[in-house]
Here is the input.
Amino acid sequence: MMNNKTRGFCFIFSVYCFILLTVADDDLCAVKIDSNSYDLYDISSQVEWQDGTTKYRISPCKVLDPFSSSCLTSDNCIGFQIDGSGKCWCLGQSPIVSWIAVTDTFTGIRGTWSRAQRVGSSPVAYNTYVVEVECSQTETAPSSVRESPQLTYIAHWSSATGCVGSKRGGGGGGSSAIGTVGVIDLVIVLSFLVFLGGGSVYNWKVKKQTGLEVIPFRAVWMDVPFLVKDGVLFVFGMTRGLFGRITGRTQAI
Here is the structure.
C-alpha cells in the first residue's frame, strides 16, 4: 500500500506531465536547424479553403481538430483533406520527421511531417505532408496545396517566421522564444530556488538552525529517492494489472 507521501508525489508528478502534454503542441512551432532558430507560432493558426470539391485544413506546426468524425485517422494531424464524397484523410502527423534550411528555390525552411495512412485505401497508401516557410517580410498563407509526387502534399507560407532568428510576435531577428513548456519549466525551477533560498534564510535567521538543518522540509527531500522508487513500482504494478486484465479478456473472447 502507498503512504500519503507517495500518493502526493505521484499526484504532483502526474499533474506536471499533464500540463506538459497539454501545451506541448506550442513547441512543435519552435524549430532548430543546426545553430539557427525559427519560431512559426505566429503563422500556426489553421488555414482552411476549398479547391474544387476537395477541402483542406492545414497548419505548419499545430495539431488540428478534424473536419468531422469521417476523418478516420485524426490523431496528432497537422493537416486534413476531405474529398467531394466526404472521405477525410490526415495529410501528416506529429512528430516532425525533419526540418531543413532551403536556399535553392526559395530562402527559408522546409519540414516533412510523419506519414499518415489513408485508412480504407487498397492497396495501403500513405500521405506525406511537406511545409515550406519562405523568409519574407510580406506574409501570405497558402491558398492551395500542390501534390508532387502523388500523395505528397506541399503547402507554402511566406512569412518573417521563416527567417533565421524569428521570434513570437516579432518576425525575424533576435532570439527565438523558448516555448510554453520552457516557460513552465523555468517558472518551476525559479519558484523552487526562491522557496529553497527563502526557507533556508528563515530557518537560519528566525529558527537559529545551522548546517543541513536550514534546508526547508529536509526530511521530505531525503525521502524523494524512495518516493520515486515507490512511484515507479506503483505505475509498473498498475500497468501489469491492466495488461493482465486486457489479455485475460481477450483470451476469454
Confidence is low (pLDDT under 50) at residues 171-177, 249-253.
